[in-house]
Amino acid sequence: MLPYTPHEQIYNVPNFLTFTRILSTPALGYFILHDQTVPALALLVAAGITDVLDGWIARKWKLQTVVGSVVDPMADKLLVTVLTVSLAMKGLLPVWLTVIILGRDVGLAISAIWYRYISLPPPKTFMRYWNFSLPSAEVRPTTISKVNTLLQLGLITASTAAPILPIGEAAMVAAQYTVAVTTIWSGLSYVFSKNAVKILKQYGEGRGKGDGENGNDGKGDIKQ
């Protein structure tokens, strides 16, 4: 007999807000690449609002899910990746910083894929792997990862606004080097932390309990 694996109710408002953030990401990249600074800033602010709202709603009405602890940081990684590449292509971010940010995120993505595979209870089928209502591992952010995300988003917002709101070059350079340091530091923190990823030995214990990255899992509003 196959082991029983409880399913989560993933169709809720916090997760819906997370997916709207994912869907808005290509438009953000388009606006930046086509010098539409005001629409880009407006959409970036809207994405930030949904990020705050999904966390508040999840905590207020106890709608935390393990899938939220995974998909929410994925949404933020996608957002940061698209914005970073778009800004670099427009010369608003240095290429070396883009490489550091993307390298760290690629490493985390590969780790997430691996942890999902090793933590998924049998049978390990393609359909079960991508069925996010089957919780198997929970992401627990490190403190520096939360700080890093805040600094990254601040730098991205400032860089996006640069064409219409000039910012001192010295301040931008200082911010870029600071983000480079925190990005590397946060990546290493996941390597050496023993609590960053929790494999759910009892596959029904996946409900968020206040120790994850985002709103959806009820663990804070800032991601890795």
From TrEMBL:
Protein name listed in UniProt: Cardiolipin synthase-like protein
A GO MF label: CDP-diacylglycerol-glycerol-3-phosphate 3-phosphatidyltransferase activity
InterPro entries per record: CDP-alcohol_PTase-I (IPR050324), CDP-OH_P_trans (IPR000462), CDP-OH_PTrfase_TM_dom (IPR043130), CDP_ALCOHOL_P_TRANSF_CS (IPR048254), Phosphatidylglycerol_P_synth (IPR004570)
Single biological process term from Gene Ontology: cardiolipin biosynthetic process
A cellular component term, taken from the record's GO annotations: mitochondrion
Family assignment from sequence similarity: Belongs to the CDP-alcohol phosphatidyltransferase class-I family.
Keyword GTP-binding: no
Top-level taxon of origin: Eukaryota
Compartments where located: Membrane
Annotated TM spans: 12-33, 40-58, 78-102, 150-168, 174-192
Gene3D superfamilies membership: 1.20.120.1760
Membrane topology (UniProt): Multi-pass membrane protein
Keyword annotations from UniProtKB, A to Z: Lipid biosynthesis, Lipid metabolism, Membrane, Phospholipid biosynthesis, Phospholipid metabolism, Transferase, Transmembrane, Transmembrane helix
